User: Fold these one by one.
Assistant:
Number 1:
Amino acid sequence: MPDSLSPPRVTPSYLCAKKAQGQKIAALTAYDCPTARLLDRAGIDIALVGDSVGTNVLGYRSEQQVTVEDIAHHTRAVRRGVERALVLADLPFLSYRSVEAALLNAGRLIQEGGADGVKLEGGTLVLPQTEAMVRAGIPVMGHLGFTPQSHGRDLYAFSKRRGTVARVQGRDAAQARLLLDEARRLQEAGVFGLVLEMVAEEAAQLVSEALEIPTIGIGAGRRCDGQVLIVHDLLGFSGVELRLAKVYARLGEEAARALSAYREEVEQGAFPGEENVFHMEPGEFARLREQLAAEN
Ligand code: KIV
């Protein structure tokens, strides 16, 4: 939970200070106002409106179908539910293919969506965009390792097909070195934090130790400066169990039970019950009946 030194609103510099003090950062995705409110009350530091909204909420096949409009819409909802957490909006696929596009779309997510910062995937290829956004005063988080937008398929479909979580990055020395170099370049470009997705624990530790900015891991082991999960996985809504996630509640099963119970009660006439109905004033029904009978 936030301590007495925690600011009323989480800022990028507070997150860097947490790393410096050896305090872990807890982040979660959020796509709607009530979930964002719960997450905020639980003291989560970052509410990430990830492009995972596409597969988790919108029924899309992959992250590549998510638009800036989608992210802006969900960011507005999350913003309304959050008082303390930093609201981070994902720049979706193709929305930062040039410096101009990145500035325009990040600006929209901040001004129209109410985001506190944006996240984009990639290393060297997105350095010009990253530098331009940082120069414009936009807080930017990087994302390395498994990058669903450029892999062109969602992790869930992939893992279901293979029965295992695939695409772990940084398993050998050359790959881990590449990851470290890319991470350093992003830090140099001014990102305030870095998501590491599906990275071998040792490689993620190396990167975390080398950077001043915090690393936020998902499937990147225990040595990152913070962790992020997809809220639907944590709450047991997505129906898939991934090695990288932990299911803290099984709300999907609970919801399915509740929906069936409702249907059965409606069909049996058990719902609504006396406690769910509204009545006319005493005597009014009888009076109306008499009036109607007299008219016939
Ligand atoms: O879109 C998303 O949810 C993400 C997380 C996996 C970090 O980018």
Number 2:
Amino acid sequence: MKKILFVTSEAHPLIKTGGLADVSSSLPKALSTLGQDVRLVLPNYGSLKLDNEVHLHSTFSLGSHTVKLLETKLPDSTVPVLLVDCPEYFAMAGNPYVDAFGHSYPNNAERFALFCRVAIEIAMNRVELDWKPDVVHCNDWQTGLVPALLSLEYQCPPTVFTIHNMAYQGLFSGITAAALQLPSQLLSQDGLEFHGMISFIKGGIAYADKITTVSPTYAQEIQTPEFGYGLEGLLIYRNDDLVGIINGIDAEWNPEIDHLIAHTYSSYSLENKVKNKIALQTHLNLPKDENVLVLGLISRLVEQKGIDLLLDCLQELLTLPVQIVILGSGDKGFEHRLQQFAAAYTHKMSLTLGYNESLAHSIEAGVDVFLMPSRFEPCGLNQMYSQRYGTLPIVRKTGGLADTVIDTLPESIVEGTATGFIFNDEHAGALLEAIKRAMLVHNIPQVWQQLQTNAMHGDFSWKNSAEQYLALYESIE
Ligand code: ADP
Ligand code: GLC
């Protein structure tokens, strides 16, 4: 049995801004199911949704801060969660990284450096837990200082650093770096230094024993200038220690047992999926029509997700016999443009700005097609949720989208492998063409149902991926 310390800045359902949260709860749960002793460490944000009992574990000083270590359990599991309580850094309500205007908190470097330092104390068994992990698994830039700082400790456990998104690097000015009082040996060009700044993500990439990212295709892509953001050279240098492991999806995304949808269903009762379509149309005040192709999109509304590709073809798309259901929030410019379309096409388009877990499930169950025109997508979860729900994804051929969707072509129809629609080019015309292709196939119910069945029978469970992580931990003992 391996003792694994899983260091993360979000975990569903305690706190979530994106897929990192989904992975940070389902992967530890899957590892626990495989018999491993896995414990999470997470900041104690003011906005955490805590259902389970929380108790105080210990109190200690770190620099000028008094830190309390609290302990709870991940909901619906036995996985322990250690909460780093430091109110001056984490007590604020709302998003963990940005304020109400979407601006990063000015002290993010100090906040997550403290979080990393506490993780080091736990990893080195200096917090009265009587537990020393065999491996420390860190995720994204917020935890990047952990492998760096741990490398300076005597008899430190090995580290794995998972890149969920290279676009967020935790880059801070030299002045901030000085305030963090990081050991000078970490600040060289081979270390945290990045063009005169310090890069938290580089700490993970340069110092971790193994680096993973969340799909095999993204593992290749980040070794190129287009996706590597200046760190492609280091990633190529560390190529032997870099592996892509595709994410799984949590058991809660299952239309057979989903209590958030109007009618549960399986591939053998697709007529109940149609009932979810009508329920969704009713809920969103769209005309009830079981035959019209309904397109869905649930996303952070940011450039990564190709929202502008959709916006650039929306006018033409809305002249076609389709309905569009969008749920998301993010860039105010995108939100505004979407609002204008939604106001002009109330009978065809529904826009919900904000975060809504329950509506997300109803959309996955109720729409026919899910849109993910991402510019880049390290893994992506919704295209897998969609397939599980018999909702066919339309995706751009990048990252995890390329790895998890099989395009509908004459041969893949015959072979019974097709599960969605893929387009290549990063422009609106290519997206629109893929949507038109889906419309044509939707008009042939027999083929459509076959595609739904193919998609629903795909194995997106966490078991395979958790086993790959376990093998990786074992390789660095
Ligand atoms: P990313 O992490 O880049 O945002 P992923 O596809 O990995 O992309 O994960 C996004 C997760 O966040 C999915 O579980 C998706 O359903 C969820 N999500 C995104 N926006 C919303 C929203 N507005 N309401 C509810 N869930 C959302
Ligand atoms: C990131 C990526 C997304 C991935 C998620 C979980 O937020 O943008 O593609 O699915 O992390 O790994």
Number 3:
Amino acid sequence: MHRRGFLQQASLGAAALLAGKLAAQEVGYTLPKLPYAYDALEPHIDAETMKIHHGLHHKAYIDNLNKALAGNDLAKLPIDQLMRDIDKVPASIKQTVINNGGGHANHTLFWEIMGPKGGGQPTGALAKAIDEAFGSFDKFQTAVGTAGLGRFGSGWSWLVVGKDKKLHVLSTANQDSPLMAEQTPLLGLDVWEHAYYLKYRNRRGDYIKAWWNVVNWPAIAERHAKALRG
Ligand code: MN3
């Protein structure tokens, strides 16, 4: 009787310990599931590039971010909030968090603002705001393309809502996130070679031209409305 009670207690204890271990492993950031199949953006973005980009590159940013923030309460923040609060990150790990937290935030947005039924032009309030800020949709597209082509080395071209609540196009180096400068990214174009090299080789301009065919404007319009509310 007593022995049985003890064994039950012991196995409960072991279960609790195991649950604790599992919970500890789950703390931190996880790779978001791609909202479509790896081959869904063909022929503009090839399946092999998507597979490596999401499953290896994005995954590596997350693993490195979790390693850098192990045991730190900052790891409980949603990734966008972590990047907005980058000045709270201890100096010894700040650049690692900029690189890998930025990589996580940027790629999470990137997957969401692309889609298999993409392309075309925005409508409604976003279309109006783009016309007001850039003169026309064509001029806006040119600005994003020029920022992406002009980024020497690795980085991103962005459409953001600035502190002034207006739209701006800009580029950032490496995995720097506009969130660190109190800007809210709506559209992000990854111009790292890993985003296009398998299919487009060194032809970044061809990749950018093709990329507009997979842009998910409804998702970007939603981000725009949310940024203006927030
Ligand atoms: Mn990338």
Number 4:
Amino acid sequence: MKEQLEALRNEALAELAVLSDAKQLEDFRVRYLGKKGSVTALLRGMGALSAEERPVMGQLVNQLRQELESALSEKNTALQQAQQEAQLAAEKLDVTMPGKKIKSGGLHPLNVVLDDLIDIFQSMGFDVVDGPEVETDYYNFQALNVPEDHPARDMQDTFYLADNLLLRTQTSAAQARTMEERKPPIRIICPGRVYRADEVDATHSPVFHQIEGLVIDKGITMCDLKGVLEQFAQEIYGKETKVRFRPSFFPFTEPSVEVDVSCSECGGTGCRVCKGAGWIEILGAGMVHPSVLRMGGIDPEEYTGFAFGIGLDRLTTTRYKISDIRLLFENDQRFLEQFDR
Ligand code: DAH
């Protein structure tokens, strides 16, 4: 039986030496040391031995079992180590490789200019208010002194959604809403998208952006309007900028003006940017029409006010010398990246 033991030992160790993965090791353990394994079978067979032989053989078989168990665990450790080393070698990191640049988003040029504008007006005490883009006929037209069938409706080509519902053609729609919500003194701007059924070209888009301004208080005059707009224009275009008023017509202001700023590119002598005029038109404005005040629940005998509407797209294209308004809406990253800041 001793020889049998020795033979089993040699066979097991020889076999273990060539095993190369975890599964083979487990098979090996089951075959030799498991419940039905060869070493276990030897222990079971000891009943047939004499009382003197039994303890001697028992010790030998236990020794064999321990020897195989520790050989197995050594082999297991060695295999794991080899595997880890192989993995480390395969996943070697070159820390001198340049990293990948992660692109972060930036502000759209319209937002860059709008943020500046909001800063300027907030510093003069204006609040920023919001209004709906889907607007009623009342706020977009009637409350602005443009009754149904009034010829002034032809000034703006309107997208109607339903009988009394439309896409606002002007942020002026915020005027009556504000008058209903606030009592004078009122000092607000309302920036936002506006819509008109215009053909798309280098200077027109069916969606564009305006900033409405509205100031109502006792004793407000045209001088206040000019002061506020001068301050605004000089902050945007530089201290030397001059502002000029040209008489104009809007149904909701009386008198109405169109406002030009001296061209910041040539200083007023005429160049490509101002098309030789020396002036660039940037907004419409005027003194709020008494009827508009009345419809907004404000007594025109007691209060006066001024309003203005700035075209944000125009302001942005002239500031950055962008030749085509469509660039603002195409979202071409190569274009937009130039305005990141
Ligand atoms: N809403 C006018 C437009 O879209 C712009 C405008 C002109 C707004 C005069 C005003 C204003 O508040 O007083 O053409």
